[in-house]
Amino acid sequence: MKNLFLRKRPAKSQSGDEHQQGETPLEASTESGENTYNNEHDYPTSETPLPESEIASDEVAAAAVTTVDEPQKKIKPKKDMLPPYDGPVLEVRNVHRSFQTGSRIIHVLKGIDMEVNPQQLVMLKGRSGSGKTTLLNMLGGLDQPSSGDILFSGQPLQDWGDRRRTALRRKEIGFIFQAYALMPLLSAWENVELSLRMADVPRAEWKDRVGHCLDLVGLSKRVKHRPFEMSGGEQQRVAIAKAIAHRPRLLLADEPTAELDSKMGAQVMAVFRNIIEVEQVTICMTTHDPTILEVADHVYEMADGRFIR
Ligand SMILES: Nc1ncnc2c1ncn2[C@@H]1O[C@H](COP(=O)(O)OP(=O)(O)OP(=O)(O)O)[C@@H](O)[C@H]1O
């Protein structure tokens, strides 16, 4: 596959080795045809490309999936659930996870240590069954370690009750899945709006926020499409808009490009880099795909429940 990413950043392994970087322009196309829908939600939709300093080449400018009509605004993450904290978004210390199936105990995670810093794109790679999803579930408070600590913005999640962890997930974390997880009967706009409803964002803010998020992922002209009327890449970009709508600090993505071809996968990764800048979000994702690793700031490689690099 060609190198297709919008920005060039060194990817570091846990040992600090830097991956070799080449020219990595985003491939010059979008996967969908002309828009046939009008914007009935009355929000801005003109298509000024990213500033020149933000793009790698004219080819990229032609392809930019992240079009905006105003200089992009930096949006500060909410601080309502957590006190201000300058340290890592995630600190994982000697985490183990075992499951009991019948009389058997399966030791899946065997002493994980990691750190995810603000506005980083961190990838977990490894073979099927190595423990990536198990770890990701714990990072998002969906599961608890058998032992060890996970700190979210300095707060020990294991000391929190279920209700507080659920509130944290709703307000501070966005989830993206391999299979998009969109509501099939709702339009792109309504899917993103649903996320704001779930996070108790005041209704008065919905219109601007939904428009902004769909604009950020390059779908301002597809707001009325329902999932089955969109390509896989477009559906995943709606899922990203949905995941960031409530301004989470952390985005967790489980194999977000696994169902996509290389071009659409590259567009998704370009969107990830853009939302890190604009929304100041931090992203941790799993992948099998070696071709997307170079867009990461840091890569952790897992084998049999441990990091090997
Ligand atoms: N709830 C559970 N009960 C028993 N075993 C489990 C449970 N969850 C995960 N496992 C086991 O833990 C191991 C790691 O699973 P996990 O899904 O984390 O791997 P993965 O690296 O994400 O794989 P893939 O890339 O295929 O998604 C597997 O052997 C799996 O069967």
Automatic annotation (TrEMBL):
- Report the SMART domains cross-referenced here: AAA
Q: Which GO terms describe its molecular function?
A: ATP binding
Question: What InterPro entries does this protein's entry cite?
Answer: AAA+_ATPase, ABC_transporter-like_ATP-bd, ABC_transporter-like_CS, ABC_transpr_LolD-like, MacB-like_ATP-bd, P-loop_NTPase
- The residue ranges flagged as biased composition, category Polar residues, are 27-38
> Where would I find the ABC transporter domain in this sequence?
90-308
Report the PROSITE patterns cross-referenced here. ABC_TRANSPORTER_1 (PS00211), ABC_TRANSPORTER_2 (PS50893)
Q: Where is the composition biased (Basic residues)?
A: 1-11
Pfam families membership: ABC_tran
Keyword ATP-binding present in the record's keywords: the answer is yes
UniProt keyword Transferase, yes or no: no
Sequence segments annotated as region (Disordered): 1-55
What are the record keywords, sorted?
A: ATP-binding, Nucleotide-binding, Transport
The record ties this protein, via PANTHER family, to: IMPORT ATP-BINDING PROTEIN (PTHR24220), TRANSPORTER, PUTATIVE-RELATED (PTHR24220:SF659)
* Name the UniProt record assigns to this protein: ABC transport system ATP-binding protein
The lineage, from the top, is:
Bacteria, Bacillati, Bacillota, Bacilli, Bacillales
